[in-house]
């Protein structure tokens, strides 16, 4: 598919323009356009409202910076330099892991959260950490699938099935149809709080989370505001996942 067609589809997938608690702006006030990559608990729909950790953090930034924020909803596949250059956003948020590869492509805010890749277990499962004793569900093309295939390649007899989305994996875990899946650690804590699923205490890896800053003129203001409000940001996270 050519870039023009990809861009057209992405623009169509910018589902709604939402102004959440907008500041009464005058003609000279800065308007910051934020794209949210959908995914709980960072940015998701609750009934007809957009909510989540990163949504609440942006509301805090809007209040502290005294700027109007315009909110756009994007699929995670929009985290692409070619796509973002077309959309004209100032900031992108949604639980974005600050990987070495992404640091070469994007300018990130100061990290505001530490996460990683966690194993989530179905409710009531007693597990000793032996991956050959349980059945995994993995998302097609994701890190979890790569990891499981490496285990198999090394000679481990690991049972797993490949699914299309995290939503399918969650459904199978809740129904007890599989034993384990791989999730972002903060998301795993959210699933524990809301569905009673277990989080294996040893993470596969750890990583920091930040927002992608596309408008370099805003970088210092955004970073300074985040650093100034570290405790408030932590309180926001705890509302969704509890203590961490």
TrEMBL record:
Keywords: Signal. It comes from the Bacteria. Residues 31-244 form the Solute-binding protein family 3/N-terminal domain. SUPFAM superfamilies: Periplasmic binding protein-like II. Transmembrane segments: none annotated. The keyword Signal applies. This is ABC transporter substrate-binding protein.
């Amino acid at each position: 598919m050519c870039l023009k067609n990809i861009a057209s589809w992405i623009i169509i997938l910018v589902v709604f323009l939402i102004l959440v608690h907008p500041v009464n702006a005058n003609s000279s006030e800065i308007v910051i356009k934020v794209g949210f990559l959908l995914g709980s608990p960072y940015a998701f729909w609750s009934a007809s409202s957009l909510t989540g950790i990163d949504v609440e953090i942006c509301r805090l930034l809007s209040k502290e910076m005294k700027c109007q924020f315009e909110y756009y909803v994007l699929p995670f596949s929009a985290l692409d330099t070619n796509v973002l250059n077309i959309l004209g956003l100032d900031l992108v948020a949604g639980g974005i892991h600050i990987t070495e590869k992404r640091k070469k492509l994007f300018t990130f805010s100061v990290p505001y959260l530490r996460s990683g890749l966690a194993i989530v277990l179905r409710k009531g499962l007693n597990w000793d950490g032996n991956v050959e004793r349980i059945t995994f569900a993995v998302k097609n093309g994701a890190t979890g699938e790569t990891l499981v295939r490496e285990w198999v390649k090394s000679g481990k007899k690991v049972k797993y099935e490949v699914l299309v989305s995290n939503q399918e994996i969650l459904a199978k875990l809740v129904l007890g149809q599989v034993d384990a899946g791989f999730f972002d650690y903060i998301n795993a804590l959210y699933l524990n709080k809301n569905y009673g699923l277990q989080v294996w205490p040893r993470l596969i890896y750890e990583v920091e989370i930040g927002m992608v800053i596309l408008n370099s003129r805003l970088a210092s203001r955004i970073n300074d505001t985040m650093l100034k409000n570290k405790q408030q940001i932590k309180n926001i996270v705890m509302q969704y996942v509890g203590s961490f």
